[in-house]
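G., the chain you wanted modeled:
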Amino acid sequence: MTDPTPPQPAARTADVTAFAETSALPHARSEPDSVEHPPVRPTTGEALNGGMPETDRLRFVGAATRRIARGIDLDEIVLGLCRAAVPTFSDAILVYLRDPLPVGDEQPVTPWVLRLRRTDRIPEALTLGTLGDLRAEGSGPLQALLADASPRLEVRGNGPLAEVLRGVRPVFTESQVPRAALRELTGAAYPPEDHRAIVAPLRGRRRVIGAAVFLREPHREPFEHEDLQVAQQLATHSALGVDKAMLYGREASIADELQRTMLPDDLPQVTGVRLASRYLPAAQSARVGGDWYDAIPLPGSRVALVVGDVMGHSTTSAAIMGQLRTTVQTLAGLDLPPQEVLHHLDEQAQRLGTDRMATCLYAVYDPVEHRITAANAGHPPPVLLHTDGSTELVDLPPNAPIGVGGVDFETVEVAAPAGATLVLYTDGLVESRTRDVWTGVEHLREKLSEVSRLTRPDAAAPLEPLCDEVLDIVGPGDRDDDIALLAARFEGIAPDNVAYCRLDPRAESVREARRLVRESLTRWELRELEDSVELLVSEVVTNAVRYAERPVSVRLLRTDALRCEVGDDVPQLPRLRQAGPADEGGRGLYLVQRLAREWGATRLSTGKLVWFEMALPSS
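Predicted structure as tokens:
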């Protein structure tokens, strides 16, 4: 079937998800409705054709369209149409919409498919008398119409229903084509007669998007010709409302998807720390914001913990958030200190625009040193929860937000004892219209202590339930800001599980590296790995001392795997290549790739770090 009018040029939007199948007819009226539109009846005013007075008809149309216009989403608008029409204008209504509904100027899916979106059946007050007998007998035109209604149907391009929908205007079902259209639409064998049914196509801004069927009982006055104008008004306002709801829903969906795709799908598994996170979008009044969090693995088994908040609530804020997050990841990969990361992030924000403001907290956790190095740019301070249930605010200079320019960010080092939990968050968690930031921070500290007391002494609370409990301090209501939460449980790496040495850049140092491997693996009772690890360390250290000018570092870490790290002052990263039969070198990284579980190379501010991991033998 073709649309009644060609689509007008408009901004392109994406597809909208089709409505879910349902076996039962949806009902608009689940509870008695308030008396907003009392039944219209003849008054002493001038009536049209002895029926509904023109003043009452205009009053009804005005109130009904206002009710329909109050809806924001699709269900509210269709519900508004049903409750406005029944019982004032009709005794029952069926609303059909295209499936899927086209949005904007996108081309609708062919062939035409209509789905029964909602029906408002006969009120309980009308189930007495003759109608009650008809219900009990399961007969009667209206009873058959509602009982046999099909929830989903395909519109034939040359059928009577297609012809009525192309006509756009409401019609009575007294003539042959409209009666056949109603029969095709509802599947009823005996459609109502005598002007007791109106089929009103729902035409949006560009095309017909569905149809509404208004029905009246035999005991009531039939529809008049002027009622076609009322049906036209109801159908037009409903269709325009559906268009508005689809566009609004599409915009909100795009904004939500934009923001969520810019947040990490999964947090990395990092040695010596456990991570958990939560993100809550703002409520309906401000769905989109610029809050983000991140955890970025760094060389030397460290991890960068990041939380930030772009000021504003719009798709622009979400887009800027994505750019700043990408910038932070790039800067973290260069292994810059926290104050340098914030400095370059500040420059990037200024390049994006003079009004691009954000707050950000960047912290680096070292599991070997059991310390945090952090810098802050106008962000609320993180909270450190100890195993005894006590909490403390990490004392960081607040500094100015990102985007101000010319700020000298300061870095602070803080002890991170094993078992402690660092909670980073955005201001949406602690600030609202009813409380300031510092009151919310105290509530957060009280909640953390309360959760900690529920666990056994000297044990840390489970991390995932802890995040859920923290979100409870927000309380119900319409949040006007989104929330990002990142919790890091520090486990660290014990000194007994670390072996370290510095070697001069000379060939004899390879022998010292092998000796470090043998002694360490013997102490850790990992002699099964000795041959493989000694071979790989020899290859990596040989490459390092050949080109380095400063001492080379070698470090072994025993956690859930055996990790070896070799650092030197040469910035060029090694490249895996296939050595030829006559080549004397080029096989070191090939052996690392074949024997190690994982391996990699990362640039440092002073050179590079090559690492590999070996799986521990099963006990």
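Residues 23 and 151 are 8 Å apart (CA to CA).

Shout if anything looks off.
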